[in-house]
Amino acid sequence: MRQAYQIQLADLGDHGARMCDVASTAMRDASTALFNADLTLAEQVIGMDVQLDEMRASAETSALELLALQSPVASDLRAVVAAIWIVADLQRMGTLAIHVAKAARRRHPRTVVPAEIKPIFERMSSVALHLSGRAAEVLRTRDLDIAGGMNAEDDLMDDLHGQMFAALMSPSWSHGVPAAVDLALLGRFYERYADHAVAVARRVTFLVTGENVGGDTTVLLSPPE
Amino acid sequence: MRQAYQIQLADLGDHGARMCDVASTAMRDASTALFNADLTLAEQVIGMDVQLDEMRASAETSALELLALQSPVASDLRAVVAAIWIVADLQRMGTLAIHVAKAARRRHPRTVVPAEIKPIFERMSSVALHLSGRAAEVLRTRDLDIAGGMNAEDDLMDDLHGQMFAALMSPSWSHGVPAAVDLALLGRFYERYADHAVAVARRVTFLVTGENVGGDTTVLLSPPE
Predict the structure, then answer these.
(1) CATH code of the domain containing A183
(2) Domain that holds residue B26
(3) Any idea where the PhoU domain is (chains A, B) (predicted)?
(4) ipTM of the complex
């Protein structure tokens, strides 16, 4: 039973990795749509909610089957619960990508991101995508070195997010209130996406080691934020 | 066993209701701190994260015990998973209240909400608190009439959120970019708080009826958004 359980848990990891790939594709295309005011691409990303929802439902069913058929206890049980939260993180990442695509669609044919602040947003997008690529790798390989290496990039995201706010709040900001409001919300979407990618890696670390990286026994089982 | 399971599930509901009360208190005090630029009260709300985290950990432990000791299957199993997501919603509501308190602290001693837009924010706060009060009642009583009645208020929140954006984006907006950016994010916190309160009531409805209100078999088991 223990072996069957491990195999099923590994399947769940592969499923999660594929879902993470879909979320990454959604965020990559949403960012391209945003930067190029590409309405067709934005619509395509918005339509990905169906696929993400199906993948979530399917992962959920797998987790429930694992619970029902194997009746895991103790650490195995906590692992399945952690897996359910990983799925929640992944779906939220997809939803945040869709929010980015919706912002591109809402302002079309205008560009949402003015040239002077575009480099910051391009970097935020790039860091977000790199983090979700890493999260997928961690889900596939359970390589904890990769998971540990994500913290520095998460700090970089926070730093970029701060730079973005400083630019919007600066007296030299010349694009008015509506643009600033759009960008503040967009910045939050990228930052939250990165947070969820990091949370996925932390939860996998917990699955592998049975220990919380932060030393707090509850942190890594905590719900998605 | 079935009876023991029902009792434990009811305990989990009571625990959730108490956690919902704490989230409501946090949001009520955060809103007061925001409207009155009350730094002491803001700090007090920010300090509530410890209590919310403890309540979450304890609810999580109860749900895990239920899974481990009762090994529920089929609908009972899905119910426990739904309960775990209810806890996630409740913790997120607390975190959003803390975000509101942090905005008040960040701008202290200045007031974040200008007089002309204050009535919209007061109504958003009032609707948010009413919804979380209802969610706590639903957790305690499993009264589906109350749960059903929450949709109209949720629509009202969306409407207020739209009015807020219209005010910020209007050419007559005279408070500049930084204020608008703060308010756009604050508006999002209230709206998300309401979304989670409604999600809690929907998940309880699912627990009671075994059916999704929306007719979609996956919606109510979906992770917090």
Answers:
(1) 1.20.58.220
(2) 2-221
(3) 18-103, 122-204
(4) 0.84
